[in-house]
Design goal:
Blueprint: H1 8-50, E1 54-55, E2 74-81, E3 87-93, E4 99-109, E5 114-123, E6 143-150, H2 155-158, E7 170-171, H3 176-183, E8 191-196, H4 215-260
Helix pairs in contact: 1-4
Amino acid sequence: MYRFLLTRQWVILTLVALVLIPTMIRLGIWQMHRYDERAARNQLVTDALSAKPVPVEELTSPGHTVTSRERYHSVRATGRFDTDREVVVRRRTNADDEVGYHVLTPLVLTDGKVVLVNRGWIPADGPSQTAFPKVPAPPRGEVTVTGRLMPDETTAASGIKNLKGLPERQVMLVNSAQQAKRLGAQVLGGYVAQTDPAPKGDVPELLGKPGKEDSALNFAYAYQWWLFAAAVPVGWVILVRRELRDRRRKAGSEQAVEDTTPAAV
């Protein structure tokens, strides 16, 4: 009765099942690796946000590339804002997905070096996109700024094209190397997303805290693939038993017909 397993249809079905099982197991392992990676990155973010602020020059320097462990770490910097040479970063959105600008203002430290400070988001309410928008002024004189240390933006990492020929004092990316050339100064690598002091009138809008990756989804997907892998042999067995039952029923019906058919004289 099991000879039907050697038919072309059942051989193909069995081979497909044998291929699906290890494939689904591998997909589950891959999803678990993704879960571990995302959970590790989430932990880095948590650790950085909960760390006490340190002087910005303890974590970065001119030409330094901000690492994943340094990213989001709370830093403080004391100096004077150079509003005459601040720029705005185009095509940035706020929490309500409104398009506007980020305000990027150089902060000249007491030792003469410069750190770029992203003071937050402002709406694009100017007469045109070529005109420099109205930017609320920061505090005058010496000020201590606290914020999250961020890596330089690049096209490869952000997907934002670094367009040329932009209006004066407008940029597409926050990049310390580019700003160092423009300012002719020693600019610390990366930039600071300001969190304190809060601006008067809540403008510019300070940037929100970074979100965390949904690592739990990868964890669920991993077990989902493994359940699928376990379901394949179970389904194969069910199909075999159903086929066997149908064949036995058919054989029994044919035998009954033969038993009730009168023999030829």
